[in-house]
Amino acid sequence: MFFFDQIKRKDVNLLVRQTRERALHLLSISDVSLLIIDRNLEDCTGLELIKEIKNSDLYFNDIPIYAIGHNDKEEEECIEFFKSGADDYSASPVAPSIFQARVNKLLDWSIKQKNNPVKLSTQMDSSEIPGILQLLETEQSTGILQASHSKDYAQAILHKGKIIEARTEYCIGKDAITEILAWPFAQIKFTENDDAPDKVEKPKALNISATLMDCVLDVDIYNDAKKRLDDTELAFVHGTKSLPSNSNRVAKQVVTMANSGLSLGEIYDAIRVNQRHLTLMIDQMIKAGYIKIAPPPFDNYLKDNGQTLRSIRTTESLEQCKENLSKLLFPLAKEVTDVPYASSSILIDHSQPSIILAGDSDTTVKRALETMLKVAANSSRVHAKTSSQRKGEKRTTLIFDKHTTIDLVCSAQKLDHHYLSNLQKDYPSCSSIIYCISSLDNPSNQANHRNLRKLRNVFSVPFTVALLSEPEEGYEPTFTFECGKCTHKLKIEMSLEGSIGTCPICSTEVKTPDCLAYAKEKLHIVENVPIVTLPARSDSSWTTLLSMICDDILDTKTYR
């Protein structure tokens, strides 16, 4: 947009957003004086965005808007933009001097309105909000107080320094004030309006100073509960007590979801109530014994593994497997399709070790399976047939030589208890599980955490966690984490770990975390569980990984 170069004012910071979502997010967390909206954005039209802003009840719906259209539809567009709520309009291309004059006029008016003593508009931390409310009480102010944080919105009506109505999406009265104070920060706007109290049907006056004393205490109680439930990947198990039959609907939903294996984050997403109320309820239910926080997936990891592997005959075959792998030359000469199926002369011994391959992406896991088959085929010059017992599952055998084989299962995506129990019966000699991860955003973390917990409940064997990438994405995959201030999801290449950038929404400085450390934290992976990054189709990387897994099994069996 060439006209941005024409804005030459030292008192103005220019922020550019090219999508509806990013524009609205910016408005919800920033103090904006003027919007310049082009006819077309990446995900909607400028007209649609203006209508959404002006028809909302959010505090930024009165920010002046300068619309830019196109010459080919100037008359028609001008009428449409003004009807939708634009304050000014120009058809592009517009003369730089005219554009600058119109921008200056709207900016001067907007800044004057913001500096008007009867109006307050600013962003602040929650700790500063009580001071603002007490100032309005001292000045006996009458009008409308609007507050927003991310997608949350609140409004309070004041009459002569007292709050006569307060509302958020789920809260009213004093509870609504508590909700505002519980936000980490908020965009606050107060407009004096003597007619505002007349719109309240049943006013109930709240003394601000007295109300704040109660609300601050409630916020402290909530913050304590939030510290105990600070990890959205937390899972739950049945408590020591049954929930009373006369409990409310939400409490029954929480118990049902918690006992079905859903994480705390998934419960938050599924139950459409105020998150603060839900956090306090879950905290109370844990204290009362109706649900319990489940141990992390790898609790008692070393002890369980040693007991399991001592009963499996592994040593000789794994030592031979390692020796065969060490002889391979890269790049591998043969594809799986280039070698024949194994003849009956090769005895496949299903009592030998087996490996289960699972993960969050069916496509990526199957590519890893194909790579492992290719590695084995280049060792033995033959390969085994593949079968399936369930949709999405693949069962085969890695043949390294005439006497050395390892059964390999690419598991189905849905890891329910019935399926895993049958898998354990079919593969009692399972000696290792490779869990493949293709994404580290919040929904994926929740699903991966749940799957790892399900697998660990059935298989007490060594695990290896692999962060997989595809060749077209480079050697390392991308991963997603959230901005600490505005919670916008940031997708970053793993090779950029440690680098510093800015959030495109709130412009906060963000440091890219170490991807392996990030995965360990989010998935509660203990030190003894290997976690690596490698491409799904890298022959040499998977050869090294297979050799490492053999060592881990042998080490676990012998020494732990």
From TrEMBL:
<dbReference type="InterPro" id="IPR001789">
    <property type="entry name" value="Sig_transdc_resp-reg_receiver"/>
</dbReference>
<feature type="modified residue" description="4-aspartylphosphate">
    <location>
        <position position="38"/>
    </location>
</feature>
<dbReference type="GO" id="GO:0000160">
    <property type="term" value="P:phosphorelay signal transduction system"/>
</dbReference>
<keyword id="KW-0597">Phosphoprotein</keyword>
<dbReference type="InterPro" id="IPR011006">
    <property type="entry name" value="CheY-like_superfamily"/>
</dbReference>
<dbReference type="InterPro" id="IPR025497">
    <property type="entry name" value="PatA-like_N"/>
</dbReference>
<feature type="domain" description="Response regulatory">
    <location>
        <begin position="1"/>
        <end position="107"/>
    </location>
</feature>
<dbReference type="Pfam" id="PF00072">
    <property type="entry name" value="Response_reg"/>
</dbReference>
<keyword id="KW-0378">Hydrolase</keyword>
<dbReference type="GO" id="GO:0004045">
    <property type="term" value="F:peptidyl-tRNA hydrolase activity"/>
</dbReference>
<protein>
    <submittedName>
        <fullName>Peptidyl-tRNA hydrolase</fullName>
        <ecNumber>3.1.1.29</ecNumber>
    </submittedName>
</protein>
<dbReference type="Pfam" id="PF14332">
    <property type="entry name" value="DUF4388"/>
</dbReference>
